[in-house]
Amino acid sequence: PVTAFVPWDGRRSGNPVRFHSVPAFAAATDLAIDVPGHGKVVVDIGYGGTFYAFLNAEQLGLDVCSSKTRDLVNAASAVTEAVKKQFKLHHPESADLAFLYGTILTDGKDAFSEEPTTNICVFADEQVDRSPTGSGVTARIALQYHKGLIQLDQTRTFRSSTTGSLFTGKAVKATKFGDYNAVVVEVSGEAFYTGTATFTVEEEDPLKYGFFFK
């Protein structure tokens, strides 16, 4: 379960909203990967609900803040494909989750600072997140904690290079996840309604409580 926290004034919800993540961990650090068209780069791989590869965009000859989005997407996608071929992921509980969801290019500012650090998340079928990415911030915090760059309850601010939107993240609890030393991360940001849905259960429905396959 992922716990969410939403301010409520008796009439409506407000901002910021936040959640506590699943246990997040560093799957690999300083991993050398040969990326076609770019040569060898060094990546970190973190898990924050899904796996991401992380690297400074400068390794690819790009600037996460000023390069064209198409160029960043192409480079990040090349990294994702290279990592998939050259590194085997392991998830402590579910083999179905042991896959690389995408690559997050950063400005390289991983050491703790009060200043925001910028990244772009390229995931799935070359999609670009409009936000710094909840699971991505979670994984990046886990990596920074693993490397000793931040401590528990130190808050960092993360900026999306595409929209400028901001999240904050901090490790709030150290824990174990399988053989990994992990942390629970609190991610905070703004949320707004985009729609509502109504679900109805009819008493006559024989499958109203769900079902299992044996």
UniProtKB/TrEMBL annotation:
Q: Does the keyword Protein transport apply?
A: no
Keyword annotations: Lyase
Instruction: Identify the domain of life.
Output: Eukaryota
Keyword Lyase listed? The answer is yes
Q: Which reaction does it catalyse?
A: trans-3-hydroxy-L-proline = 1-pyrroline-2-carboxylate + H2O
Q: What class of enzyme is it?
A: lyase
This entry's Enzyme Commission designation comes to 4.2.1.77
User: Gene3D superfamilies under this entry?
Assistant: Diaminopimelate Epimerase, Chain A, domain 1 (3.10.310.10)
The molecular function terms of the Gene Ontology recorded here are: trans-L-3-hydroxyproline dehydratase activity
InterPro entries attached to this UniProt entry: Pro_racemase_fam (IPR008794)
**Which regions span the lipid bilayer?**
none
Q: How does it assemble?
A: Homodimer.
Q: Its family?
A: Belongs to the proline racemase family.
Stated name of the protein: trans-L-3-hydroxyproline dehydratase
Specify the species. Answer: Baryphthengus martii
